[in-house]
Amino acid sequence: MRNKLNRFLQRLEATDQLDQLQELIVSLRQALNVDHVVYHWVSVDGEQYGFGTYDPGWAQRYQDMEYIRVDPVVSGCFQRFHPVDWKRMDWSSKAARAFRADSIAHGVGNQGFTIPIRGPNGQFALFTLSHTATDAEWDAFTADYQRDLIVIAHFLNAKALQIEAGRTPDAIRPLSPREVDALSFLGMGYSRSQAADLLSISEHTLRAYIESARHKLGALNTVHAVARALSEGLIIIGGAAKDAPGGWPGRQGDTDVAPD
């Protein structure tokens, strides 16, 4: 198997056309013997770009239904840097369960493994494998090949950036102090009403700061905005809290900080 993966990387290095990447993805699916392999780039303007082996009907339905807004894998990966097994995502909401049932009905598979990728200027992409298997079978597969898949994901993203250079996000515009405060409190786990109280502003004003920050960051939603701000070093959860209104101290390194 690893000889096949090494040959894939060699072919990837020599690739210079988008259609060749699609052919390589198909060959990778065959080498790994899984149902699907997908590379999915979420651009800053909300457009989705990528290639993979999902049925075209499902790919179109995903866009038409705007499933990106309810997909727990996408929202979960915004907050993570490490690979994610779909079983460990939060599928408890009615929208998420309906989306999951629809995806299985369209042949996506009951198991999945996604690697979040971050590139220059906050570029964000996902490399995903999905399959129909038992929990034990899937756990054994991901344990055996996780390191190889991480390498492949990042090499594939680098090649996509090289071929589609025009899609690389522009540098992020600086956030105002209030926008930093708003995202910092949300990143700590506070609700919007709690964050507004801590900032001594109305929820309406808070929403304006959040939307302004989201626009500057090119984020799809608030979770994405917080994740992007963290990845770019624009906010620091815990350490930034010591300068919060009211002077309450934050505890360095905590992600769930409460006023003392």
UniProtKB/TrEMBL annotation:
UniProt KW keywords: DNA-binding, Transcription, Transcription regulation
Keyword check for DNA-binding: yes
InterPro entries in the record: Sig_transdc_resp-reg_C-effctor, TF_LuxR_autoind-bd_dom, TF_LuxR_autoind-bd_dom_sf, Tscrpt_reg_LuxR_C, WH-like_DNA-bd_sf
GO annotation terms (biological process): regulation of DNA-templated transcription
GO molecular function (one): DNA binding
UniProt cross-references to CDD domains, sorted A to Z: LuxR_C_like
Pfam families listed in its UniProt record: Autoind_bind (PF03472), GerE (PF00196)
Domain HTH luxR-type: 168-233
Family annotation (SMART domains): HTH_LUXR
SUPFAM superfamilies registered for this protein in UniProt: C-terminal effector domain of the bipartite response regulators, Pheromone-binding domain of LuxR-like quorum-sensing transcription factors
Domain of life: Bacteria
Protein name per the record: Regulatory protein, luxR family
Organism: Loktanella salsilacus
Classification lineage: Bacteria, Pseudomonadati, Pseudomonadota, Alphaproteobacteria, Rhodobacterales
